[in-house]
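Page 37, continued from 36.
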Protein backbone atom coordinates (compact mmCIF):
# COMPACT_ATOMS: atom_id res chain seq x y z
CA UNK A 1 0.00 0.00 0.00
CA UNK A 2 1.33 3.43 -0.89
CA UNK A 3 1.02 6.38 1.46
CA UNK A 4 -1.58 8.13 -0.72
CA UNK A 5 -5.08 7.34 0.56
CA UNK A 6 -7.33 5.51 -1.86
CA UNK A 7 -10.04 7.69 -3.41
CA UNK A 8 -13.68 6.63 -3.45
CA UNK A 9 -13.43 6.09 -7.20
CA UNK A 10 -10.37 3.85 -6.83
CA UNK A 11 -12.07 1.93 -4.07
CA UNK A 12 -15.15 1.32 -6.19
CA UNK A 13 -13.10 0.35 -9.22
CA UNK A 14 -11.29 -2.15 -7.04
CA UNK A 15 -14.62 -3.48 -5.82
CA UNK A 16 -15.94 -4.17 -9.33
CA UNK A 17 -12.50 -5.40 -10.43
CA UNK A 18 -12.11 -2.71 -13.01
CA UNK A 19 -9.13 -3.39 -15.24
CA UNK A 20 -7.33 -3.08 -18.53
CA UNK A 21 -9.73 -5.59 -20.16
CA UNK A 22 -12.69 -3.34 -19.35
CA UNK A 23 -10.98 -0.23 -20.64
CA UNK A 24 -10.02 -2.05 -23.85
CA UNK A 25 -13.56 -3.35 -24.32
CA UNK A 26 -15.13 0.10 -23.90
CA UNK A 27 -12.67 1.70 -26.30
CA UNK A 28 -13.52 -0.92 -28.91
CA UNK A 29 -17.22 -0.27 -28.39
CA UNK A 30 -16.56 3.46 -28.69
CA UNK A 31 -15.47 2.95 -32.31
CA UNK A 32 -18.86 1.46 -33.18
CA UNK A 33 -21.01 3.61 -30.94
CA UNK A 34 -19.64 7.08 -31.67
CA UNK A 35 -21.62 7.54 -34.90
CA UNK A 36 -24.77 6.76 -32.90
CA UNK A 37 -24.17 9.08 -29.94
CA UNK A 38 -26.45 11.71 -31.42
CA UNK A 39 -29.19 9.12 -31.86
CA UNK A 40 -28.73 7.84 -28.30
CA UNK A 41 -29.00 11.40 -26.97
CA UNK A 42 -32.22 11.89 -28.97
CA UNK A 43 -33.69 8.69 -27.56
CA UNK A 44 -32.61 9.65 -24.07
CA UNK A 45 -34.38 13.02 -24.09
CA UNK A 46 -37.42 11.65 -25.92
CA UNK A 47 -37.83 9.26 -23.07
CA UNK A 48 -37.57 12.06 -20.50
CA UNK A 49 -40.04 14.26 -22.31
CA UNK A 50 -42.54 11.38 -22.50
CA UNK A 51 -42.35 10.82 -18.76
CA UNK A 52 -44.35 13.39 -16.80
CA UNK A 53 -42.21 13.25 -13.65
CA UNK A 54 -38.81 13.29 -15.35
CA UNK A 55 -39.98 16.04 -17.70
CA UNK A 56 -41.04 18.21 -14.77
CA UNK A 57 -37.53 17.94 -13.30
CA UNK A 58 -35.87 19.05 -16.54
CA UNK A 59 -34.03 22.24 -15.62
CA UNK A 60 -34.96 25.09 -17.90
CA UNK A 61 -37.72 23.05 -19.56
CA UNK A 62 -37.83 21.79 -23.14
CA UNK A 63 -36.00 24.80 -24.52
CA UNK A 64 -32.87 23.40 -22.86
CA UNK A 65 -33.04 20.03 -24.60
CA UNK A 66 -30.97 21.06 -27.62
CA UNK A 67 -28.14 22.15 -25.39
CA UNK A 68 -28.51 19.11 -23.12
CA UNK A 69 -28.18 16.74 -26.08
CA UNK A 70 -24.79 18.24 -26.90
CA UNK A 71 -23.72 17.66 -23.30
CA UNK A 72 -25.07 14.11 -23.49
CA UNK A 73 -22.98 13.33 -26.58
CA UNK A 74 -19.87 14.53 -24.71
CA UNK A 75 -20.92 12.41 -21.71
CA UNK A 76 -21.24 9.26 -23.86
CA UNK A 77 -17.94 10.00 -25.52
CA UNK A 78 -16.10 10.16 -22.22
CA UNK A 79 -18.01 7.14 -20.91
CA UNK A 80 -16.56 4.88 -23.59
CA UNK A 81 -13.27 6.61 -24.40
CA UNK A 82 -12.03 7.31 -20.88
CA UNK A 83 -9.62 7.91 -19.37
CA UNK A 84 -11.42 6.66 -16.27
CA UNK A 85 -9.27 8.62 -13.84
CA UNK A 86 -9.86 11.05 -10.97
CA UNK A 87 -10.71 13.83 -13.41
CA UNK A 88 -13.43 11.54 -14.77
CA UNK A 89 -14.94 11.14 -11.30
CA UNK A 90 -14.74 14.85 -10.63
CA UNK A 91 -16.44 15.70 -13.89
CA UNK A 92 -19.22 13.18 -13.19
CA UNK A 93 -19.50 14.51 -9.64
CA UNK A 94 -20.09 18.02 -11.00
CA UNK A 95 -22.92 16.67 -13.16
CA UNK A 96 -24.33 14.99 -10.06
CA UNK A 97 -24.25 18.29 -8.19
CA UNK A 98 -26.39 19.83 -10.91
CA UNK A 99 -28.96 17.07 -10.45
CA UNK A 100 -29.00 17.66 -6.72
CA UNK A 101 -29.32 21.40 -7.20
CA UNK A 102 -32.34 21.14 -9.49
CA UNK A 103 -33.91 18.68 -7.05
CA UNK A 104 -34.05 15.73 -9.44
CA UNK A 105 -35.51 12.78 -7.49
CA UNK A 106 -32.81 10.14 -7.13
CA UNK A 107 -34.83 7.28 -8.54
CA UNK A 108 -34.84 8.89 -11.98
CA UNK A 109 -31.08 8.32 -12.10
CA UNK A 110 -31.79 4.61 -12.31
CA UNK A 111 -34.42 5.06 -14.97
CA UNK A 112 -32.04 7.22 -16.97
CA UNK A 113 -29.15 4.79 -16.64
CA UNK A 114 -31.41 2.00 -17.80
CA UNK A 115 -32.08 3.87 -21.03
CA UNK A 116 -28.33 4.15 -21.62
CA UNK A 117 -27.78 0.50 -20.75
CA UNK A 118 -30.39 -0.66 -23.24
CA UNK A 119 -29.15 1.61 -26.02
CA UNK A 120 -25.51 0.69 -25.57
CA UNK A 121 -26.29 -3.04 -25.22
CA UNK A 122 -28.09 -2.86 -28.55
CA UNK A 123 -25.06 -1.30 -30.23
CA UNK A 124 -22.76 -3.83 -28.59
CA UNK A 125 -24.89 -6.66 -29.92
CA UNK A 126 -24.93 -5.21 -33.44
CA UNK A 127 -21.14 -4.92 -33.37
CA UNK A 128 -20.13 -8.16 -31.68
CA UNK A 129 -22.91 -10.72 -32.05
CA UNK A 130 -20.67 -13.05 -34.05
CA UNK A 131 -17.90 -12.90 -31.41
CA UNK A 132 -19.48 -14.08 -28.15
CA UNK A 133 -16.30 -13.59 -26.10
CA UNK A 134 -15.89 -10.00 -27.23
CA UNK A 135 -19.59 -9.34 -26.67
CA UNK A 136 -19.34 -10.74 -23.15
CA UNK A 137 -16.33 -8.53 -22.35
CA UNK A 138 -18.11 -5.44 -23.64
CA UNK A 139 -21.26 -6.24 -21.67
CA UNK A 140 -19.30 -6.76 -18.49
CA UNK A 141 -17.39 -3.52 -18.93
CA UNK A 142 -20.61 -1.62 -19.71
CA UNK A 143 -22.22 -3.01 -16.57
CA UNK A 144 -19.28 -1.89 -14.49
CA UNK A 145 -18.97 1.62 -15.86
CA UNK A 146 -22.71 2.35 -15.72
CA UNK A 147 -22.86 1.15 -12.14
CA UNK A 148 -19.87 3.34 -11.33
CA UNK A 149 -21.82 6.24 -12.86
CA UNK A 150 -24.74 5.48 -10.58
CA UNK A 151 -22.35 5.31 -7.65
CA UNK A 152 -21.08 8.84 -8.39
CA UNK A 153 -24.64 10.11 -8.57
CA UNK A 154 -25.59 8.51 -5.26
CA UNK A 155 -22.46 9.91 -3.75
CA UNK A 156 -23.43 13.48 -4.64
CA UNK A 157 -26.86 12.97 -3.08
CA UNK A 158 -25.27 11.60 0.04
CA UNK A 159 -22.89 14.56 0.34
CA UNK A 160 -25.87 16.82 -0.01
CA UNK A 161 -27.73 15.04 2.80
CA UNK A 162 -24.72 15.30 5.07
CA UNK A 163 -24.49 19.04 4.42
CA UNK A 164 -28.18 19.34 5.21
CA UNK A 165 -27.75 17.45 8.45
CA UNK A 166 -24.92 19.76 9.47
CA UNK A 167 -27.22 22.71 8.85
CA UNK A 168 -29.97 21.21 10.98
CA UNK A 169 -27.49 20.75 13.82
CA UNK A 170 -26.33 24.33 13.45
CA UNK A 171 -29.95 25.39 13.57
CA UNK A 172 -30.74 23.55 16.74
CA UNK A 173 -27.77 25.20 18.46
CA UNK A 174 -28.95 28.49 17.05
CA UNK A 175 -32.46 27.86 18.31
CA UNK A 176 -31.19 27.24 21.82
CA UNK A 177 -29.16 30.43 21.65
CA UNK A 178 -32.12 32.48 20.51
CA UNK A 179 -34.19 30.92 23.25
CA UNK A 180 -31.79 31.84 26.00
CA UNK A 181 -31.18 35.38 24.69
CA UNK A 182 -34.92 35.94 24.42
CA UNK A 183 -35.40 34.65 27.90
CA UNK A 184 -32.59 36.81 29.35
CA UNK A 185 -34.00 39.94 27.71
CA UNK A 186 -37.26 39.53 29.59
CA UNK A 187 -35.60 40.58 32.85
CA UNK A 188 -34.22 43.99 31.81
CA UNK A 189 -37.47 44.68 29.96
CA UNK A 190 -39.36 43.88 33.15
CA UNK A 191 -37.22 46.35 35.08
CA UNK A 192 -37.86 49.07 32.47
CA UNK A 193 -41.57 48.38 32.69
CA UNK A 194 -41.62 48.72 36.48
CA UNK A 195 -39.63 51.96 36.37
CA UNK A 196 -41.92 53.27 33.68
CA UNK A 197 -44.89 52.62 35.92
CA UNK A 198 -43.26 54.50 38.80
CA UNK A 199 -42.32 57.44 36.56
CA UNK A 200 -45.89 57.64 35.27
CA UNK A 201 -47.26 58.08 38.80
CA UNK A 202 -44.63 60.75 39.54
CA UNK A 203 -45.20 62.86 36.47
CA UNK A 204 -48.95 62.98 36.82
CA UNK A 205 -51.17 64.93 34.44
CA UNK A 206 -49.27 68.18 34.24
CA UNK A 207 -46.42 67.48 31.83
CA UNK A 208 -47.93 66.54 28.45
CA UNK A 209 -44.62 66.18 26.61
CA UNK A 210 -43.11 63.90 29.23
CA UNK A 211 -46.29 61.85 29.24
CA UNK A 212 -46.14 61.47 25.46
CA UNK A 213 -42.62 60.10 25.72
CA UNK A 214 -43.53 57.71 28.47
CA UNK A 215 -46.35 56.42 26.27
CA UNK A 216 -43.89 55.94 23.49
CA UNK A 217 -41.53 53.99 25.73
CA UNK A 218 -44.45 51.86 26.82
CA UNK A 219 -45.45 51.17 23.23
CA UNK A 220 -41.94 50.18 22.21
CA UNK A 221 -41.65 47.93 25.24
CA UNK A 222 -44.73 46.17 23.93
CA UNK A 223 -43.08 45.77 20.53
CA UNK A 224 -39.87 44.40 22.07
CA UNK A 225 -41.82 41.96 24.23
CA UNK A 226 -43.83 40.94 21.19
CA UNK A 227 -40.70 40.15 19.22
CA UNK A 228 -39.34 38.01 22.02
CA UNK A 229 -42.64 36.20 22.43
CA UNK A 230 -42.61 35.52 18.71
CA UNK A 231 -39.12 34.17 18.69
CA UNK A 232 -39.84 31.92 21.62
CA UNK A 233 -43.09 30.86 19.99
CA UNK A 234 -41.21 29.87 16.86
CA UNK A 235 -38.87 27.70 18.81
CA UNK A 236 -41.45 26.19 21.10
CA UNK A 237 -44.24 25.91 18.58
CA UNK A 238 -46.88 27.41 20.87
CA UNK A 239 -50.46 27.59 19.64
CA UNK A 240 -51.36 30.67 17.63
CA UNK A 241 -53.72 33.39 18.70
CA UNK A 242 -56.87 32.96 16.65
CA UNK A 243 -58.82 36.08 15.83
CA UNK A 244 -60.38 37.72 12.83
CA UNK A 245 -57.71 39.72 11.10
CA UNK A 246 -58.06 42.45 8.48
CA UNK A 247 -55.06 41.92 6.22
CA UNK A 248 -55.13 45.52 5.00
CA UNK A 249 -54.33 46.62 8.54
CA UNK A 250 -51.65 44.00 8.99
CA UNK A 251 -50.01 45.02 5.72
CA UNK A 252 -50.30 48.70 6.49
CA UNK A 253 -48.61 48.09 9.83
CA UNK A 254 -45.85 46.07 8.20
CA UNK A 255 -45.28 48.65 5.46
CA UNK A 256 -44.98 51.38 8.08
CA UNK A 257 -42.07 49.74 9.88
CA UNK A 258 -40.02 48.72 6.84
CA UNK A 259 -37.45 51.39 6.02
CA UNK A 260 -37.11 52.24 2.38
CA UNK A 261 -34.58 54.38 0.50
CA UNK A 262 -36.07 57.28 -1.48
CA UNK A 263 -35.46 55.47 -4.78
CA UNK A 264 -37.69 52.51 -3.92
CA UNK A 265 -41.41 52.96 -4.35
CA UNK A 266 -44.03 50.92 -2.51
CA UNK A 267 -47.43 50.27 -3.96
CA UNK A 268 -50.22 48.50 -2.06
CA UNK A 269 -53.06 47.40 -4.26
CA UNK A 270 -56.47 45.79 -3.79
CA UNK A 271 -56.13 45.34 -0.05
CA UNK A 272 -59.41 46.83 1.11
CA UNK A 273 -61.55 44.43 -0.87
CA UNK A 274 -60.09 41.24 0.59
CA UNK A 275 -61.98 39.12 3.12
CA UNK A 276 -60.80 38.75 6.70
CA UNK A 277 -58.70 35.79 7.67
CA UNK A 278 -58.48 34.01 10.97
CA UNK A 279 -55.12 34.06 12.64
CA UNK A 280 -52.51 35.76 14.72
CA UNK A 281 -52.13 39.41 13.67
CA UNK A 282 -48.69 39.81 15.22
CA UNK A 283 -47.28 36.78 13.44
CA UNK A 284 -48.96 37.64 10.17
CA UNK A 285 -47.43 41.07 10.40
CA UNK A 286 -44.06 39.37 10.78
CA UNK A 287 -44.66 37.55 7.48
CA UNK A 288 -45.10 40.78 5.59
CA UNK A 289 -42.35 42.65 7.41
CA UNK A 290 -39.92 39.90 6.35
CA UNK A 291 -41.13 39.78 2.76
CA UNK A 292 -41.15 43.56 2.41
CA UNK A 293 -37.70 43.90 3.93
CA UNK A 294 -36.31 41.40 1.45
CA UNK A 295 -38.14 43.05 -1.43
CA UNK A 296 -36.89 46.53 -0.53
CA UNK A 297 -33.36 45.19 -0.12
CA UNK A 298 -33.54 43.54 -3.55
CA UNK A 299 -35.04 46.60 -5.25
CA UNK A 300 -32.55 49.06 -3.74
CA UNK A 301 -31.23 51.58 -4.51
CA UNK A 302 -33.71 52.23 -7.33
CA UNK A 303 -36.77 50.15 -7.96
CA UNK A 304 -40.31 49.28 -7.08
CA UNK A 305 -42.05 47.03 -4.58
CA UNK A 306 -45.70 46.14 -5.03
CA UNK A 307 -48.14 44.21 -2.90
CA UNK A 308 -51.26 42.88 -4.55
CA UNK A 309 -54.11 40.97 -3.01
CA UNK A 310 -56.56 38.65 -4.68
CA UNK A 311 -59.39 36.69 -3.16
CA UNK A 312 -60.11 33.34 -4.79
CA UNK A 313 -62.44 30.53 -3.75
CA UNK A 314 -62.02 30.35 0.00
CA UNK A 315 -58.50 31.75 0.08
CA UNK A 316 -56.63 35.00 -0.12
CA UNK A 317 -53.47 35.34 -2.22
CA UNK A 318 -51.05 38.13 -1.41
CA UNK A 319 -48.21 38.81 -3.79
CA UNK A 320 -45.14 40.75 -2.79
CA UNK A 321 -43.12 41.71 -5.86
CA UNK A 322 -39.98 43.64 -6.48
CA UNK A 323 -37.94 44.77 -9.46
CA UNK A 324 -34.63 43.45 -8.08
CA UNK A 325 -32.53 40.65 -9.57
CA UNK A 326 -34.83 37.81 -8.46
CA UNK A 327 -33.64 34.79 -6.50
CA UNK A 328 -30.63 33.14 -8.08
CA UNK A 329 -31.17 29.53 -9.19
CA UNK A 330 -28.72 28.06 -6.69
CA UNK A 331 -30.58 29.60 -3.73
CA UNK A 332 -34.03 28.82 -5.07
CA UNK A 333 -34.34 25.20 -4.03
CA UNK A 334 -33.42 25.94 -0.42
CA UNK A 335 -35.00 29.35 -0.25
CA UNK A 336 -37.34 28.61 2.64
CA UNK A 337 -34.89 26.61 4.70
CA UNK A 338 -33.36 28.22 7.79
CA UNK A 339 -29.88 29.73 7.59
CA UNK A 340 -29.91 30.11 3.82
CA UNK A 341 -28.63 33.57 3.04
CA UNK A 342 -26.64 35.34 0.34
CA UNK A 343 -26.30 38.56 2.33
CA UNK A 344 -23.17 39.58 4.22
CA UNK A 345 -25.19 40.43 7.29
CA UNK A 346 -28.07 38.05 6.72
CA UNK A 347 -29.00 35.19 9.01
CA UNK A 348 -31.39 33.46 6.67
CA UNK A 349 -34.28 33.15 9.07
CA UNK A 350 -36.68 35.57 7.40
CA UNK A 351 -38.18 33.27 4.80
CA UNK A 352 -38.04 30.22 7.05
CA UNK A 353 -40.26 32.11 9.51
CA UNK A 354 -42.54 33.24 6.69
CA UNK A 355 -43.04 29.65 5.64
CA UNK A 356 -43.53 28.43 9.16
CA UNK A 357 -46.08 31.10 10.04
CA UNK A 358 -47.96 30.62 6.77
CA UNK A 359 -48.07 26.85 7.37
CA UNK A 360 -49.33 27.31 10.92
CA UNK A 361 -52.19 29.35 9.49
CA UNK A 362 -53.04 26.55 7.07
CA UNK A 363 -51.47 28.54 4.25
CA UNK A 364 -48.52 28.37 1.88
CA UNK A 365 -45.81 30.58 0.45
CA UNK A 366 -44.28 30.19 -2.99
CA UNK A 367 -41.61 31.84 -5.01
CA UNK A 368 -41.81 32.62 -8.70
CA UNK A 369 -39.91 34.92 -11.00
CA UNK A 370 -41.71 38.18 -11.55
CA UNK A 371 -42.57 38.57 -15.23
CA UNK A 372 -40.24 41.29 -16.49
CA UNK A 373 -37.57 40.54 -13.88
CA UNK A 374 -37.39 40.42 -10.11
CA UNK A 375 -38.92 38.29 -7.41
CA UNK A 376 -42.49 37.42 -6.52
CA UNK A 377 -43.54 35.78 -3.28
CA UNK A 378 -47.13 34.60 -3.05
CA UNK A 379 -48.66 33.95 0.35
CA UNK A 380 -51.94 32.03 0.36
CA UNK A 381 -54.13 31.98 3.44
CA UNK A 382 -57.53 30.42 4.00
CA UNK A 383 -60.14 33.21 4.07
P1 LIG B 1 -31.79 36.91 4.98
O1 LIG B 1 -32.59 38.09 4.53
O2 LIG B 1 -31.27 37.01 6.38
O3 LIG B 1 -30.71 36.53 4.00
P2 LIG B 1 -34.13 35.37 4.25
O4 LIG B 1 -34.57 34.00 4.68
O5 LIG B 1 -35.11 36.46 4.42
O6 LIG B 1 -32.78 35.66 5.04
O7 LIG B 1 -33.69 35.31 2.72
C1 LIG B 1 -32.84 34.28 2.29
C2 LIG B 1 -32.21 34.60 0.95
O8 LIG B 1 -33.20 34.58 -0.08
C3 LIG B 1 -31.60 35.99 0.84
O9 LIG B 1 -30.29 36.05 1.37
C4 LIG B 1 -31.64 36.24 -0.67
O10 LIG B 1 -30.56 35.60 -1.31
C5 LIG B 1 -32.89 35.51 -1.11
N1 LIG B 1 -34.03 36.44 -1.25
C6 LIG B 1 -35.05 36.62 -0.39
N2 LIG B 1 -35.92 37.54 -0.86
C7 LIG B 1 -35.44 37.93 -2.07
C8 LIG B 1 -35.90 38.87 -3.06
N3 LIG B 1 -37.01 39.59 -2.90
N4 LIG B 1 -35.12 39.01 -4.17
C9 LIG B 1 -34.00 38.29 -4.34
N5 LIG B 1 -33.54 37.40 -3.45
C10 LIG B 1 -34.24 37.22 -2.32
Amino acid sequence: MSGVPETVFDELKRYVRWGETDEQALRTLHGFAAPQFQLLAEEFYDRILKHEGARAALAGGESQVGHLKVTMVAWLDRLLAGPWDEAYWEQRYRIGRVHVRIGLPQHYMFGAMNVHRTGLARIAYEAFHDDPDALQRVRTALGKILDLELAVMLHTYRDDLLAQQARVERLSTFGQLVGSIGHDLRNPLGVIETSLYILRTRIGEGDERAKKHLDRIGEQLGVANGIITNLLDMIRNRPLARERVALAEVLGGAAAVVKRPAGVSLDLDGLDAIPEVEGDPVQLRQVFVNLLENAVFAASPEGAVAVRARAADGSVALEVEDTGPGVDPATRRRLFEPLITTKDKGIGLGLALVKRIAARHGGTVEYSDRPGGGARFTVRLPA
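The mean pLDDT is 88. Flag for discussion at group meeting. The pocket of adenosine-5'-diphosphate is lined by residues 290, 294-295, 298, 322, 324, 326-327, 331, 335, 340-343, 346-352, 375 (CB under 6 Å).
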